[in-house]
Amino acid sequence: LQRNPRPTQQYETAQNYRKSSNIETIKPATYSDAHKIIEKLRDGNIIVFSLELVDDDLAIRILDFVYGGTFALSGKIKEVGTRVYVVTNYGVNLSEISGSSDNQKAPSYR
To answer: C-alpha 25: how far from its chain's center?
Structure first.
């Protein structure tokens, strides 16, 4: 029985993300813009997006989609300001600037 010396697929994916990381900014105005956020994440980018242009109901829908896509890609999402979020890939660390470290919880807009 031989062991496979290759790293796991998740590790290989993280290595590919690091090679192509760019910081992208998006101000989604429609629900379809949430898909663009996940596409950019999948392509290895770090995304900063603001929900200041959308109403509360649409903001919740966009966040639900982005949280799901981020989880599926083993990424991280963090609220860094009022209605401003950073989405990163697996292996990218976000330093805590201020506030609590429990930013994985979806905010309440009601």
So the answer is: 12
